Structure formats: structure tokens, C-alpha cells
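Re: the 181-residue chain
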Amino acid sequence: MITLVIGAASSGKSEWAELLATRSPQPIIYIATGVSDPNDPQWQAKIQRHRERRPDSWNALEVPIDLAQAISDLQSTKPDNYLLIDSLGTWLANLLDRDEEQWAAIEQEFLATLQASKLEITLVAEEVGWGVVPAYELGRVFRDRLGKLSRKVGAISDRVFLVVGGHAIDIKKLGERLPFN
């Protein structure tokens, strides 16, 4: 089963994904796509808050780049585990230096790996594009890539939750999926 949890900054999406994970009887592997940066105290504080919320029984891995490979490896070595991946936006940000062709290949491999996996996987993604158009090209590339990635992951997910104001709504149940062009 694939579950996508999307929402704005500080909306509660990570907490919702963590709650879903705690409902599983399987051992939890938490994949953090961000990396620690001692020069960024705000980022360090956010990482620490996430760590403090996680039970000690969860295994945690930092996977900033090779997410598809990590999923494949865990499928082989820990097939009875539940994966919680937080977050697709941070993972994508780590790959923003890739050109469109490279990104398309990475995205395709990632989506194929998700679809082929038999693991239960919950992914967290930032919902972008509801505000102003970014002033810089790199910001627009990030917004567009993440929006398209979330749409593609949502299409192959069994559940898609939108978290707004601390409330989770299963939009896969309530909504109608748009066809891809």
C-alpha cells in the first residue's frame, strides 16, 4: 500500500504520517531525506523535533539522494517493514542541480520502484504553488517538479491525505483524479 500525505508547512503532515505508521503492526523504518546542517540552527531544531516525536523502536535512515535504491534495498532485506519517507520536497531539493533529462530519469526510476515495491510506504510531500510565483528560476523549477511529482505519486497511491490546519482529509476518497496529459 502506498499512502501520500501532502500539506503546507507546519500543517501537521509529518505528524499525520507518523500517526499512520504507529497504527501498523509492522516494524517502522523512517527515511529522512534531509541532512543535518550544523550551520542552520532553525533546520537543526526542526530535525530535533522530528527525532523527539519518533519512538525509539523505529529505525531511522538518512537518504538524501538515492531514494529509489534505498527502497529497493529495503524491499530485499526488510520485506516486512513499513517505510515512512519524510519528505519528497527535501529529497527533490537535494537534486535541484540535475538538469531536466537527469531529473526525468531519477523521477521515473523512483516511481517505478514505488510501484514495484511490496512494502507498505507512506510518503510526506510539501504542497506547493498555492502562493506567489517564485521570483527566481530555481524556485519555479522546484515548485513545478514537486507539483508534478506529487501528482504522479498521488496517481499510484492507494490513499492521499491533504493535511490542512491540523486536519487530514482523504482526498482520494472525496476527489476525482485528473487524467495525465
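The mean pLDDT is 93.
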